[in-house]
Design goal:
Phenylalanyl-tRNA Synthetase, Chain B, domain 1; three-stranded antiparallel sheet; 15 helices; globular; binds S-adenosylmethionine
Length: 387
Amino acid sequence: MLEEISKELGFEVELIEEGKAKLVVPKMSNYLRPDGVYEPAHAPVFYNPKAKFNRDVAVAFGKALREELGRLEVLEPLAGSGVRSVRYAKEADADKVLAVDVDPLAVKLIEINARINEVEDKVKALNADANAVLHNRQLREGYYDLVDVDPFGSPMPFADGAIRSTRRRGLVALTATDTAPLTGARPQAALRKYGAKVLRTPFSKEIAIRTLIGAVVRVAAVREVALKPEIAFFKDYYVRVELRLDRGAKRVDETLSNLGYIFYDDKSYEVVVSRGYPLPEDIPRGMRALGPLWLGPLSGPLAKKVEGGVKPFVEKIIKEDEVGVPFSYKIEKVASILHTNMPSPRLVLLRLRELGYKAVITHYDNTAIKTNAPKEEVFKVVKELSP
Ligand SMILES: C[S@@+](CC[C@H](N)C(=O)[O-])C[C@H]1O[C@@H](n2cnc3c(N)ncnc32)[C@H](O)[C@@H]1O
């Protein structure tokens, strides 16, 4: 069978498994970088095994949404091999999935993968440009409960279309792999793509998540659409956000009230969080501003209903939200400011809890602590516990 498929597609393929799906993908050992690592961008159709966790989360939220709505119709406008679309059909029991790709080879592969998994009645492949589909109701055949945008780089060029094609109470899911602008390594690119000022901080990964949400929320506001995170996180080399969509000026105003700025001083680790959009309510002197950023929670009610292997990870983010602080203390940086050795972050966390504060290790950096303790207390504890 594989030989026939290879002939039909014009490149060698192999059969792999991911989640509950069996998949035909380009033979990965044919697309190695000089250092021997597989490079999905070199393959004729994109399949990245490293994004499995991203898809595991996507499918788990899809399943939870299906249970809530009693229905699940998914649009994947940049579908690649079709792995995600097939998994929505098989594992989240989606009733209908429209998998779109601009590359005709990808569309052929999506059709093959739908057939192999016996979900060809649910997964339809379409060869078209993502934005053409997202902005044309006829082409995309209506509206969807979940629109999952997983492009190369920034999802912002597809954000407005994703918002347009999602039903009320549905989810707009976006992956961003352009972590250089989002973490402050390329401030000019961040300004262009996300309309935000992003600088490097010891909690850059959290800034990345909050910058992306802040930007998408503002795009949605133009259409009187309100978006709120059901889950948002940073993992490996990407940011992933799944946002619940609602309509109405009042809800949009409420969403915009969660926007604001973080002021940061690198010499002292002083952080000031100031709500307000387009301008912050307070502007502390002599500090550098980052934003606009989403300052609200990174999880919502759906996160509490998610089951399966991703649940412990999702619970970590729920716990971080309970601390209610949109940044973290990287213990190594605090120790370096104090000119002292770095204590174990775990011990710092336990001590802060003993003192009556909330404290958790962040999901994006296991040497960073999120706490509601004032900075002076964190510094005191780090000094006290320094070996
Ligand atoms: C990162 S890959 C998608 C991976 C896939 N979502 C997954 O989970 O494995 C991006 C895909 O977008 C497709 N693509 C790029 N530009 C596009 C466009 N303007 N419209 C539709 N598809 C596009 C590429 O051909 C590629 O297959």
